[in-house]
Amino acid sequence: MRIIKATLAHLDLLNPLFVKYREYYGQLPYPDSSRSFLEKRLRLEESVIYLAFADDDVDDSKLLGFCQLYPSFSSLSLKRVWILNDIYVAEDARRMLVADHLMREAKKMAKETNAVRMRVSTSTDNQVAMKTYESMGFREDTEFKNYTLPINSD
């Protein structure tokens, strides 16, 4: 399996899988808005996106999965934190350890940027994701309780 860092040239390949990821979490597809969102993140270097391809896919025509990370910082440790915000594997590529390969690359990048940690969250009923994260060394946070504050965009 080959993992590469996405560029603007990968948008047309990435967008359909990103739309499926959004649909998985109950969002409407909005392919044009999704593409625009991804383009902006890449153009402004506001996120890092890794793409997974099969070794025999020499022309990178079939995307197996992706993960997107956002940078953050820890004031307590005075270091960078990476938020593994999005990870998705194409249905026909599941059980091929695609997520594991993507997370290994993300972890490598986190180490190279001297990050103190990576954070990830998932829906409370996504047992497969939880097991995968735990198998990669992620641990449930027992020190801090997280809250969200919804902000209306009206």
Automatic annotation (TrEMBL):
Domain N-acetyltransferase: 1-154
Pfam families: Acetyltransf_1
Highest taxon, organism lineage: Bacteria
Membrane-spanning parts: none
Protein keywords: Acyltransferase, Transferase
Matching Gene3D superfamilies: 3.40.630.30
Classification via InterPro entries: Acyl_CoA_acyltransferase (IPR016181), Bact_Acetyltransf (IPR050832), GNAT_dom (IPR000182)
GO molecular function: acyltransferase activity, transferring groups other than amino-acyl groups
Name under which the protein is recorded: GNAT family N-acetyltransferase
Source organism per UniProt: Pseudomonas putida
